[in-house]
Specification:
The chain contains six helices and no strands. It has helices at 2-14, 19-24, 30-49, 54-74, 81-90, 92-106. The two termini are 24 Å apart.
Length: 109
């Protein structure tokens, strides 16, 4: 569990140089992000069920909460793209975690 979180944080740090490139381009398609959020949620729910410590369980709960928040925003087709961008800008942890994940899913990185 910790190694997965460490890998996500390392990936975020490695792609920090790509942030201006990602910011200059449109966010990934909201439907793709919503689908990726579903995968993320199910993945972390499985990890939560297998958590061996309170710390691992808390990390899993935090990741589920983040992915659910992104799913709520990106899963709504009525949400305008500018609001997606504003939401991500107001939530840098979500932006880093999810934009990188969506970018990887879409092959942008």
């Amino acid at each position: 569990m910790r190694s997965t979180l460490a890998a996500l944080l390392a990936l975020s740090a490695l792609t920090a140089g790509a942030a201006p490139v990602l910011a200059a381009t449109a966010l990934p398609d909201p439907a793709e992000c919503a689908a990726a959020a579903e995968v993320t949620i199910h993945d972390w729910q499985g990890r939560l069920a297998k958590a061996r410590s309170a710390e691992d369980a808390e990390v899993a709960r935090q990741q589920i909460t983040r992915a659910e928040a992104v799913r709520r925003v990106t899963g709504n087709p009525a949400t305008p793209p500018a609001l997606h961008r504003k939401y991500m800008d107001l939530n840098p942890d979500l932006r880093d975690f999810f934009v990188v994940r969506c970018a990887l899913k879409l092959g942008a990185i």
